Fold this protein.
Amino acid sequence: MTVRSNHAMTQPIDARARQHAAYWAFLVHRVSGLALAAFLPVHFWALGQALHGEAALEGFLRWTDSPWFKLAEWGLVVLLSLHLMGGVRLLLIEFGTMRGLRKDWIAIGLGASLCTGLMLAVSLNV
């Protein structure tokens, strides 16, 4: 019995693919999803402070008034917006009727995420 090797699996990865806008959109979507997943236990811990009484919750809420926390909150909202727009882009690719490179969708998603980040930064008054 002979074993066939898959030629496509043995070829080296073309470096040009990593320079394409779609690769960077994939990478941003993946990294933002992992960062949001890593945030979830911290979020549940923060919500759990209410179960330990009013003093524990009040101490946590005082800590959230720091500028570093506001910066982290801004980063979280930007990550959430980037992940949302990346997901919408993927849905449009999968279920949309348009064809082509779709670089405009990447630009629209990035622009919407940056606008969301700017609106939050203005509203935080840091």
